[in-house]
């Protein structure tokens, strides 16, 4: 029984390509998620201070 090196080579090549593509996609998704989480917070609203309101005095 002979080993068919061409078929084994093609299968190994396809596995390597699949692993590389999966890693690249995961890195892109990780970057998107990181940007989303870093920019997804509610900014505090600025409160206008009324100069005539005595409660705002220090």
UniProtKB/TrEMBL annotation:
<feature type="transmembrane region" description="Helical">
    <location>
        <begin position="6"/>
        <end position="23"/>
    </location>
</feature>
<keyword id="KW-0812">Transmembrane</keyword>
<protein>
    <recommendedName>
        <fullName>LPXTG-motif cell wall anchor domain-containing protein</fullName>
    </recommendedName>
</protein>
<keyword id="KW-1133">Transmembrane helix</keyword>
<keyword id="KW-0472">Membrane</keyword>
């Amino acid at each position: 029984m002979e080993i068919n090196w061409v078929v084994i080579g093609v299968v190994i090549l396809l596995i390597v390509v699949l692993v590389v593509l999966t890693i690249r996609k995961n890195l892109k998704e990780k970057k998107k998620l990181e940007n989303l989480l870093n920019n997804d917070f509610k900014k505090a609203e600025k409160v206008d201070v009324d100069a005539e309101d005595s409660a705002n005095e220090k």
